[in-house]
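Components:
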Amino acid sequence: MTATAETHAGPDQPVRVVLAKLGLDGHDRGLKVVARMLRDAGLEVIYLGLRQTTESVLRAVEQEDADVIGLSIHNGGHMTLAPRMVEAVRAAGMDVPVVVGGIVPEVDLGPLQEAGVFAVLGPGASAADVARTVRAAAAGRA
Amino acid sequence: MSIPDNHPPEAAEPGDEQDSLRREAQARWRAAYEATPRRDGSFETMSGVPLAGVHGDPPFPGEYPYTRGIYPSMYRSRLWTMRLFAGMGTAADTNRRFKKLLEAGSTGLSTAFDMPTLMGRDSDDPWAVGEVGRAGVAVDTIADMEDLFAGIDLGDVSTSMTINGPANIVMAMYIVTGERGGTHRSRLSGTIQNDILKEYQAQKEYIFPPRPSVRLVTDLIRFTTAEMPRWHPVSISGYHIREAGSTAAQELAFTLANGFAYVEAAMAAGLDVDDFAGRLSFFFNSHIDFFEEIGKFRAARRIWARWMRDRYGARKERSLQLRFHTQTAGVSLTAQQPEVNVARVATQALAAVLGGTQSLHTDSYDEALALPTEKAARIALRTQQVLAHETGAASVADPLGGSAFVEWMTDEMERRATEVFDHLDKLGEGSILEGVYEGIANGYFVGEIADSAYRFEREVNAGRRIIVGVNAYTEGDDGDTPILHIDEDTEGRQLHRLAEVRRRRDGAAVTDALERLAAGAADPTLNLMEPIIDCVRVETTEGEIVSTLEGVFGTYTEPAIV
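Structure:
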């Protein structure tokens, strides 16, 4: 993911992040906790929740002028779903980084990064890690 | 005070009236105990000290309100069922895993379905892409169910199937699989989860709106009551409520409230409470706070017995006895230093045994990383075998009964649950079922659970709650635990299988069966089990049956509440 000067989040503006789960997976505990963590850290959260599609996420990003997409994946489908989201963002001509949270085996981290995922937050990531990563994504920094 | 068994450890003391009441209770217990079978086992300590079957005060195990256990002899008659949940890839892949588990000494099968199957979607549905066979086995048609149980005599095993929204469809497939293998439905034994209420509250695998979904649950209760005496049609599950972040007391309260709701629904459908209540079973989580868990299990039995007798008028002993399956807490497993999870699982499993569980699934240490490897699953089973055969925990019924702390914890769990029942009763104006519907509609359950989950997370973040390997003692995480990789070709193989079935089946028969199903669904007095069985017989897919029912019942969408 390249740095973007056009990111909406200046130093004074809160970072806006869309949080969603793609597909059928219903494990939303992590996403809800992350939503509250990010709000407490001063970010603006657009919580889409369960059963979203790449289209519905893109729509929300556009309407809400979001800086970052946060996907929560707990069903082993990350190698399919995360690259698909990145592709959809690119195909729409947008430059919005995708951060993945959930259970992702170490061997998949490299391929996900190659596929354009900004960062992966595993189980045990602290509130500070989560906020820092999302802010870094918004600012286009690794 | 202990009750003398074949090796009396101590003589009863002479005394006052209380003592004579106690002696009466002891005699009652002993008579009940002696009427039960005895498994092989020495029932003495390692040092050769003989052990009584129970110690402490009445009411004894096997007596109302069953706080101390539902059987007088508990694990002296029969150990708990060691049931390991398995499912992955195609039906044939899972079938191989089942056979290995049976060979390793597992005494029951437990099936995990993949997400599309759980959500009533076929493997070739656009929503299923990337999820086929990943977190469980893919079952689209009767052909897959037949592959799943190929070479296993369904009259011989007890099978648990963890599925909710499409439970009636999967039940129908199992019935037809049994029939084709020569086992009539009346001889099938097992449990289907079929607990839709907790889906709206926690697990989120709902399909239809709550009311028609509860009708489907009630249909299955009515059907098994009439035709399948060895089947448990609902496993009322706190497990997922806890995994979603609730506290122990919330798990207890929401789960039992859901149980009361199904009782009210089945009674409203015209069933006598004593005809079906004995078939209901429960499924709890065993988390890491040892004594709180034991108090929760003991309180669950006492609350259920009291409510079933006093509020719902049940009279049969079996209707008052809460039977439960336990699974150790998946959410407590850490991705960091995963081998340490073996210690967590063993502790949680011990709490379940000391709490009097009827069956137990122990998680594998690698489950925070991926689905378990065979080795990890074997260690999980071995953990139960150590508890059963080496520790002595199965020698004495309710060994912690009478501990001031455990009895207080039991009372405290009951008190906290009662506050929730009062709230739901008020919401439902005297009906727990209506209170639960209202609590789903107004976000009460999801809000309470999310609050608890967040509170826990903040405690961990602030270091007020220590999790070994996560926020303390973090050195030693080498991150090279071998994990299971699902064959990438699973989806392709399953799609091929489904296409083959769609090609070879009688399309007109499928259309006919679906039309009859739609007509039945529109009439709430009809039981939909037979029309669904008819659909399954002619190789109608799960997704086709679900879409037909959605056409009548509608589809549920959750409001996005954080």
